[in-house]
Design brief:
The protein is mainly α and 272 residues long. Helix content is 82%, strand content 0%. It is built from ten helices and no strands. Helix 3 (40-72) packs antiparallel against helix 9 (214-244), helix 5 runs antiparallel to helix 6 (157-184) and helix 6 packs antiparallel against helix 10 (250-271). It is globular. The model is unreliable at 107-112 (pLDDT under 50).
């Protein structure tokens, strides 16, 4: 069976590998089916947990690899990371402003409408940032498999699969980081799960693209990794952590943020 797999074209191998990572994203999003009745304290704790997961992922899954890859490609590491990081943050900032202008245009809104609008914006930014984060991860897997055809230094089938395995396991808490806040905002378990797993669907697409355009994508990947990191940090600072801190037990919510950060940090560092 393994022999048959390794005889596939490299883009096909990358597709299979990222279908696996997508499945693990969906598995992480499944947690919402085990939450019967949303409790404010539990949901705020999970929101803080998701914020911690995203901060850790932004550094260890995105910024640190961006700096290392930029250095190996002969770029200026700090400048590459700075441009990408600020670009991602500014994109989310501009999107936030545009959304606010569009929804406030016209008559004055009632308080209920304002709350609903804020919840929708928070969910949209969350799904977008995690999805954006999954694009460079998918590209990285595609590049790992596509580079096998060129015999690039350090490129081995085992290494490519270990990368896919590491990213896949990291996707478990990331799927939860999307689905749980959506559940908190009143989405049904099925809806929260659907959007949670949907954030990972871009990985197979990006992987095939990365495998097909490996040499060109390789030079863009450091920017894309840092770009996604900036977007994620903006969402955490702007929406997730402030919202979790509206709870009267905000010290406990802060503790859950530390727990989320620690879990993702351990997974990222242990899985390389």
């Amino acid at each position: 069976m393994l022999d048959s797999f390794f005889q596939l074209a490299y883009p096909a191998q990358a597709l299979v590998a990222t279908l696996f990572t997508w499945a693990l994203t969906a598995l992480g999003a499944c947690v919402v089916f085990f939450m019967r009745r949303p409790n404010r304290n539990v949901m705020d704790a999970m929101l803080g947990l998701a914020g911690g997961v995203m901060v850790a992922a932004a550094f260890w899954s995105l910024l640190s690899p961006s700096i290392d890859m930029a250095e190996s490609l002969g770029m200026v590491p700090w400048l590459t990371a700075l441009i990408g990081f600020m670009g991602g943050g500014i994109l989310l900032f501009c999107g936030d402003r545009v959304f606010t202008c569009l929804t406030e245009k016209g008559a004055l809104l009632r308080r209920e409408d304002t709350s609903r609008r804020a919840g929708f914006k928070r969910c949209a930014m969350l799904v977008f940032s995690i999805t954006l984060h999954n694009i460079p991860e998918g590209l990285a897997i595609g590049v790992a498999f596509g580079s096998l055809a060129y015999g690039l230094e350090g490129s081995t089938p085992i290494g490519a699969w270990l990368l896919a395995l590491g990213i896949g396991l990291q996707n478990l808490p990331e799927g939860m980081a999307v689905s749980v806040p959506l559940r908190r905002e009143g989405y049904t378990p099925k809806q929260a799960f659907f959007y949670g797993q949907l954030s990972g669907v871009v990985e197979p697409i990006a992987a095939v693209l990365g495998a097909l355009l490996v040499l060109k994508i390789r030079t863009c990947l450091p920017f894309l990794l840092a770009f996604a990191a900036g977007a994620m940090i903006y969402v955490v600072v702007e929406e997730l952590i402030p919202e979790s801190q509206t709870n009267e037990n905000k010290d406990w919510m802060a503790l859950f943020t530390l727990v989320g950060f620690s879990v993702m940090m351990v997974m990222d560092v242990a899985l390389g």
